[in-house]
Amino acid sequence: MNRKIAAVAAIATVLVASACSSSSSSDSKSGEVLSKDGKGKKITVWLMDDAQKQWPEVVEAAKAQFKSETGADVDIQWQTWANYTTKVDTALLSDNAPDAIEIGNTQAAKYIDAESFVDLTSVKGKFDNSDKWLDSLAASGKSADGSKTYAVPYYAGARVMIYRKDLFEKAGVTTPPTTLTELKAALDKVKADNAGTANFSALYLPGKNWYTAVSFGAGSYGVDGVIGKSSGGKWTSTLTDPKFVEGVNTWNELQKAYSVGGTTVDETDQDARMAQGNIAAIVGNGWEVGSVIDPKNGNPDLKDKLATIALPGAAAGDPTPAFLGGSDLAVPEKAKNAALGATFLQIFTNTAQQTALAKHAIPNAKNLVDAFKAADPANEAAGNAAQGKTWFIPNSPMWSGTNETELKNALSAIAAGGDPAAELKKVEATVVGTLNG
């Protein structure tokens, strides 16, 4: 673990040194953060191939508007997530960094701390809907103290409860549950009605699916403070906060009562498991419906039998907070056309482009999510989750796989019978120590 922390710290140190020693891009020398002086120029933008496959028309519309307003062309270089972090690390150290890039929102803190991105704080208000950005995406693009903005929200995905309508209705549950009390009553009926099915889970909650377990513990916090909170540059743990432990205990009670055989695994194969027919509900990203019914690895016969709802919370209209994953967009500090890159991001995330993107994914602002929900009735649950209370990992540049592993191990031990408070206490020092480097 110490070697891993040292390695991450070394990367951050190198990036900081590079940023501080580099000569800034030509247009940032003039103090411009946004520029429309692009005649005869071409900027380079790195985007994930999700956009190429799902919303290429949005990208083309943004390119056309950018060309019209600046005179500059755009070279979109399509990327994949495999080994992407290593590629970004290398690019940000070079003198040939792209002018704008997409990053996962869990990756942003490392680069922001290293001062590898252009500070967009002074022009944040010139980005459409910036006062209504989704909480978790907006938080991921800020400095650790929340005072500055370095990355712009792009799009999001939210976790929901995916369930078998046919099994719930057969058990007499015809109205989707809206509270935890209603959920437990519904699951009791589904469990009893399928008592003869081997290894049946009314709600499959694998022990190492830390995203779901932590969601129950996140209900007492806003977007900040889940797992840890920062004050004066120092992180302290919330893992043993009685409110957090109470939430994890709720998850533990659900998994003990309704989940079978998943205490030592995570959610990686839950879609395939659900396709086999002995799981009535899972908690996952909305797009996992497609994975469950995939003709190749799933069960297409379930196509009309699945539905989604926001994971119920203590009260109706107040669902359990969803972890909001997604992507941000940023301008590398060493970009040659940084101000033009920022202008492209301004256009690419404007209301028109984001409304068009909403046909395919959750857009970056709460006021635009209704367009996502209107695009397909199946989007309503994920849209509601995104518009509600969400949570995000501690915005520390030192967050790493170590933290996830520690949490997974603690939750697996809890699922296997361990005391929630005691098991969380065991990993608390390691998690906080990692956050503080």
UniProtKB/TrEMBL annotation:
<keyword id="KW-0732">Signal</keyword>
<dbReference type="InterPro" id="IPR050490">
    <property type="entry name" value="Bact_solute-bd_prot1"/>
</dbReference>
<dbReference type="Pfam" id="PF01547">
    <property type="entry name" value="SBP_bac_1"/>
</dbReference>
<feature type="signal peptide">
    <location>
        <begin position="1"/>
        <end position="19"/>
    </location>
</feature>
<protein>
    <submittedName>
        <fullName>Extracellular solute-binding protein</fullName>
    </submittedName>
</protein>
<dbReference type="InterPro" id="IPR006059">
    <property type="entry name" value="SBP"/>
</dbReference>
